[in-house]
Design a protein that fits this description.
heterodimer; A: 113 residues; mainly beta; six-stranded mixed β-sheet; 12 strands; B: mainly beta; 11 strands
Chain lengths: 113, 115
């Protein structure tokens, strides 16, 4: 069965600091990989996705993620965090004939001024 | 509208009552999904529609849960005889079709509280 692990439940960073959110997955092949962000009272917004090709993908709001097959990871990064980035971040996978998204438990990001 | 619309945004009900949650997908999207977000379980898949048919109901937690979709558009998730453990945020998503590469766009959800 496929699964996604986000090891960090809660991360606090200072505004302007760099950020890395970790995501590891278990899947029989190379999955399709996604990062979504959820602000309070909002739905999930797609930040970026990886299907194939270049393993470093760029997304919206200055985020990027790198797929590392050898580590089964898809970590999300941002060089300089803004206060508006405070939200919950979810890593998700799907793939092949499996259209269902399997999500990690999420990482709550707090940004200190 | 431009996005996935869900109503109501909040629903408070008493244990044992039935509730209906509505989802209006993005126009032209043939695939529609329901997920549940709860504190203990995170985000879980409930059911998938392709057009008006539901080929995958594998995530529905019990037979108190049912869903339908009419006209290839609006979907209703019904929970009968609600229990406190049904309290969660119910999210609807839609995509162009069922291909895994198609992005799923999410609504803001319905927060259900069962007292």
């Amino acid at each position: 069965a496929q699964s996604v692990t986000q090891p960090d439940i809660h991360i606090t960073v200072s505004e302007g600091a760099s950020l890395e959110l970790r995501c590891n997955y278990s899947y029989g092949a190379t999955p399709y990989l996604f990062w979504y962000v959820q602000s309070p009272g909002q739905g999930l917004q797609l930040l970026l996705k990886y299907f194939s090709g270049d393993t470093l993908v760029q997304g919206i709001k200055g985020f990027e993620a790198e797929f590392k097959r050898s580590q089964s990871s898809f970590n999300l990064r941002k060089p300089s965090v803004h206060w508006s980035d405070a939200a919950e971040y979810f890593c998700a996978i799907s793939g092949g004939s499996n259209y269902k998204l399997t999500f990690g438990k999420g990482t709550l990001l707090t940004v200190n001024p | 509208g431009a996005g996935v619309s869900q109503s109501p945004s909040n629903k408070v009900t008493e244990k044992g009552k039935d509730v209906e949650l509505r989802c209006d997908p993005i126009s032209g999207h043939t695939a529609l999904y329901w997920y549940r977000q709860s504190l203990g379980q995170g985000l879980e898949f409930l059911i998938y529609f392709q057009g008006n048919s539901a080929p995958d109901k594998s995530g529905l937690p019990s037979d108190r849960f049912s869903a339908e979709r009419t006209g290839g558009s609006v979907s209703t998730l019904t929970i009968q005889r609600t229990q406190q453990e049904d309290s969660a945020v119910y999210l609807c998503a839609s995509s162009l079709d069922r291909l895994a590469k198609n992005i799923q766009y999410f609504g803001a959800g319905t927060r259900l509280s069962v007292l």
